[in-house]
Amino acid sequence: MKLATFRYKDQDLVGILSSCETKVYPLSTLGLHAMDMNDFIDQTAKDGSLLGSVAGKASKLDATEEAGLLLSDVQLLSPIPFPKQDIICLGINYAAHAVESARFAKDDFGGERTYPLYFSKRVNEAVAPKGVIHMDEKIMTALDYEVELAVVIGRDAKNVSPENAFDYILGYTILNDVTDRTVQTRHKQWYFGKSLDNFTPIGPYIVTEDCFERPPVLKIQTTVNDELRQNSTTADLIFGIPYVISELSAGMTLKAGTIIATGTPEGVGMGFQPPRFLSKGDKVVCTIEGIGDLENTIG
Ligand code: MG
């Protein structure tokens, strides 16, 4: 099941995609009400049977031709436009990306790591699918893309074992961990260079966990102006999703609605020699098998 946030007649609504993915059913047509996706996630966290009943109602509507809004008549927004907390991100979590990063800036990215590298990313408002990443050339001089599989936690997780980790996942989405490499590397910590306004496109949908294998093994790609730049598989994650949820939840409660970005594979702009950073007018499309395309332009 694909969960969406969308704008229709000046209202921002949450809905479920029809099985043929041409229409979206607003939650109200399923007898539900949620202020936004965060509210809906909280409701599913409290009522473990809610997602299943929503899926059942949506599949009944699939048989009714009049039900739902045409996707072409709505404007998709990021599924979680206003995350409740900073995004938890993994750095250097694909081996080949570790090599290209160290080649670009050895002091900042090189070295052996026994434990995952965690950092956070502030998101005042997630950029929508087809939205513009505004490039402020006064501060952004080395703008880069990073396609990532993002995990959305579905219920509060504390002391979760790796074996049970998938039971705490609502679903998956695509996150472009947009970064300015100059700002990232000139400060000791990465927070600022990862958190500038418009640096977090998320979407197009949250696809529920039941649609995937455990763990999900998915093709993950980025094109820039239709040229394939990143082309990998989530099978290559160094620290896998169960490990990460178990390790983090042993020390901190992962609240429902938490977003964890699992890291990016090789092929980012700083990995090329010379580096190939983004410019105004570029079209960046991040794609993950089974989730969709997250397309944005630099403006
Ligand atoms: Mg990243």
Walk me through this protein's architecture.
By secondary structure, the chain is α+β, with helices and mostly antiparallel strands. The protein folds into two domains: 76 residues; 212 residues, Alpha-Beta Complex (Fumarylacetoacetate hydrolase, domain 2). The protein is 18% helix and 30% strand. It is built from seven helices and 18 strands. Strands 1, 2, 3, 4, 5, 6, 7, 10, 11, 13 and 16 form an eleven-stranded mixed β-sheet that branches. The chain has a five-stranded mixed β-sheet with strand order 8-18-17-14-15, with no helix packed on it. The longest helix has 12 residues. The structure holds magnesium ion (MG). The site of magnesium ion (MG) has 6 residues, from loops.
CATH superfamily of the largest domain: Fumarylacetoacetase-like, C-terminal domain
DSSP strand count: 18
* Distinct ligands, ions and cofactors found in the model: magnesium ion
Contiguous low-pLDDT stretches (5 residues minimum) are: none
On the 0 to 100 scale, the average pLDDT is 96
Give the helix/strand class: alpha+beta
Annotation keywords:
7 helices; 2 domains; 299 residues; Fumarylacetoacetate hydrolase, domain 2; 18 strands; 5-stranded mixed beta sheet
